[in-house]
Amino acid sequence: MKISYHGHSVVKIETDGKTILIDPFITGNELTDLKVEEEKPDVIILTHGHNDHVGDTVELAKKNDSLVIANHELATYLSWKLVKTHPMHIGGAYEFDFGKVKLTQAFHGSGLMTDGNEIIYMGMPAGLLLFIEGKTIYHAGDTGLFSDMKLIGERHPIDLAFLPIGDNFTMGPEDAAEAARFLKPKKVVPIHYNTFPPIKQDPHKFVDMLDVCPGQVMSAGESIEY
Ligand code: NI
Ligand code: MN
Prior knowledge:
single chain; alpha/beta; Metallo-beta-lactamase, Chain A; seven-stranded mixed sheet; six-stranded mixed sheet; binds nickel (II) ion; binds manganese (II) ion
């Protein structure tokens, strides 16, 4: 399987026959190398309802008949946009044809901002545990540090963890380094930084702070093979 990073929180996983996109924020994401018209995801998985995570989901899903996996509220909203969805919720796991997905908690907001100056409630934000081809991948979504990350790591030994380091809206580098101590993954990749001025960070400094496992700063388009 090939796991690639595409700026902000966008992660792509290419398995034997399936392409999975996590939080496909492409339009308006100056750090991404992806183009909406070129992406053909079979599956889209969303961590929460913020616009910098839902991104281009509706257009991509409609064009490619993608299955969108998200928390119940967000999935229901997207089903009203005539997108094919699979609703889940925190603590729940489900076996899909590409692997298993489990939603974990995340401490954050999850309102979708509409053009009409409205915020629509999109349920609880989540982190994602993905069990694919014998590997366990954790995408923390947007979250602050929480001590139950210890439980997540104990219950599900993690091969690769994507952790936000931007600060301001999520964990900053110090808290993300502590998250790595809680989770004990085999490798950490920092995400959710440098996209907007308030989340400017040096990812190399963060990687240097890691003491329980190595970290890898991934540039947009870079991939890891398992
Ligand atoms: Ni968010
Ligand atoms: Mn965000």
